[in-house]
Design brief:
Number of helices: 10
Radius of gyration: 20 Å
Order of helices and strands: EEEHEEEEEHHEHEHEHEHEHHEHE
CATH architecture of the largest domain: Alpha-Beta Complex
CATH superfamily of the largest domain: Medium-chain alcohol dehydrogenases, catalytic domain
Helix content: 25-40%
Bound molecules: NADP nicotinamide-adenine-dinucleotide phosphate
Structural class: alpha/beta
CATH class of the largest domain: Alpha Beta
Shape: globular
Strand content: 15-25%
Distance between the termini: 17 Å
Largest sheet: 7 strands, mixed
């Protein structure tokens, strides 16, 4: 990666493939048109869906053209604004989302309604990793209609989405059972979540955790047959939501609300405020400089991240 400050160093790839297709390229710094804002990116989260798109697995739902950039999540500082922008000015600290798969870069242009101010107590790392995982967790919890006293089971409970879903569900007064590997149990307990190990007999482990009570809802963020388990437990279809097992959605007519159901600046702002107020922790597992994007995805694609992996695009 060169150090030319007049360029936008960005993640790109020009054909589908594994992590080795990712490159850092030098592009012109984009200019904001009317209604748009140019942001100097400080941090940008990474998400498993980006790896699936890069591998060509989601061509039906999310078609690609090449060369393709990558990334939705980001946080940074407003550099310039296009005509008609009154809500943001140069120097403002913002959290945002791109709909053009290009946030893993030093600069990104987005519409002003894809930005919210960064509240002061939200770290840059948390801010950059907030959007996709946050809106997905928000939508998934909302989909299962929790009321105080309900018991909800959440799979992948310590991952990027799951770690936020357990906290949002808890905040709604539910008893939350979180399925995760043993090394995440302390963190779950710290948040008032009942941890359940997925190793061994998962049905038996859940029975033990329920201690004779019944589960009212299930949020699946892991796939791997958890929806079948939820159905077998007698949880009604309209109180089961998965963000990954789309075959099970067809089969059981359960819900599949994810990021798209809550991709708004309003939800992003609400989540950021929760983080700022100490009501939502975004665990940041690891950060990598932008130029080490391949290593970041190597870590993510082990599928055992606790919280978020975030790229650092610029330190100042
Ligand atoms: N539909 C949407 O809008 C949407 C949005 C975002 C993500 N997604 C999808 O949702 C999934 C989760 O995303 P993410 O960002 O949370 O991923 P992530 O951060 O990589 O988390 C993966 C989690 O899966 C857990 N896991 C691995 N094997 C497991 C098993 N056998 N049983 C239970 N948990 C297991 C890991 O927990 P341990 O470390 O405890 O093993 C880890 O915490 C991905 O497939 C992603 O593509 C969908």
């Amino acid at each position: 990666m060169s150090t030319d400050n007049s360029k936008n160093h960005a993640v790109q790839y020009d054909h589908f493939g594994h992590i080795d297709v990712l490159n850092i390229v030098s592009l012109p710094i984009p200019s904001p048109k009317a209604g748009e804002v140019l942001v100097k990116v400080k941090t940008a989260g990474i998400n498993p869906g980006e790896a699936s798109i890069r591998e060509g697995k989601l061509q039906q739902q999310f078609p690609s053209t090449f060369p393709s950039g990558q990334g939705t999540d980001f946080a940074g500082i407003v550099e310039t604004t296009g005509d008609g922008i009154t809500d943001f000015k140069a120097g403002d600290e913002v959290i945002g989302f791109s709909n053009n798969r290009n946030s893993q870069a030093e600069y990104v242009v987005v519409k002003a309604d894809q930005l919210v101010p960064r509240p002061p107590k939200v770290s840059w790392e948390q801010a950059g990793g907030l959007f996709v995982a946050g809106t997905t967790a928000y939508a998934a919890v909302r989909a299962v209609n929790l009321k105080a006293g309900d018991t909800v089971i959440i799979s992948g409970a310590a991952g990027g989405v799951g770690s936020l879903a357990v906290q949002i569900a808890k905040k709604q007064g539910a008893k939350v059972i979180g399925i995760a590997s043993e090394h995440n149990h302390e963190w779950l307990k710290k948040h008032g979540i009942v941890p359940v190990n997925y190793e061994g007999n998962i049905e038996q482990n859940l029975k033990t955790a329920l201690n004779g009570a019944k589960a009212d809802a299930f949020i699946d963020t892991a796939g791997k047959g958890y929806v079948d388990i939820a159905v077998q437990m007698g949880i009604p279809a309209d109180r089961i939501n998965t963000i990954i097992d789309f075959e099970a959605v067809e089969k059981y007519k359960i819900k599949a609300e994810g990021s798209a159901a809550a991709s708004t600046a309003e939800v992003l702002s609400e989540l950021a405020q929760m983080v700022n107020d100490g009501e939502l922790e975004i665990p940041v597992a690891k950060t990598y400089p932008l130029k080490h994007v391949k290593e970041a995805y190597q870590e993510l694609e082990k599928h055992h991240t606790h919280g978020k992996i975030v790229l650092i695009a610029s330190a100042n």
